[in-house]
Design brief:
4 strands, 2 helices
């Protein structure tokens, strides 16, 4: 019975520690410990192997504002229109 209780306790402890976040061990420019939480040793700011995934490039919206000027918002939408001007897209049905 003791072995069963011990193994259940071990499994419970292992499950509780899975996915736990800890404080980053990196140091800031002022030599203060980083306060970011991470599941690894270093957060994304201090990890030299971190690669930011940026699959889509931002472009300037093609929409026209109510005042008749070009929209100045950036969008990653494939249509080239921001969320305010998607209704101005004439061939958006063909893009999907």
């Amino acid at each position: 019975m003791k072995k069963l209780t011990l193994s259940v306790a071990t499994i419970s402890l292992a499950m509780m520690s899975y996915g736990q976040t800890t404080q980053c061990e990196g140091l800031t420019k002022d030599s203060i410990q980083c306060k970011n939480k991470t599941t690894q040793v270093l957060c994304y700011l201090h990890n030299p192997n971190y690669v930011k995934s940026n699959n889509k490039k931002s472009v300037l919206c093609n929409g026209i504002t109510k005042s008749g000027k070009n929209c100045k918002l950036k969008t990653k939408n494939i249509s080239g229109y921001c969320r305010h001007h998607e209704s101005q897209c004439h061939n958006c049905d063909e893009i999907d």
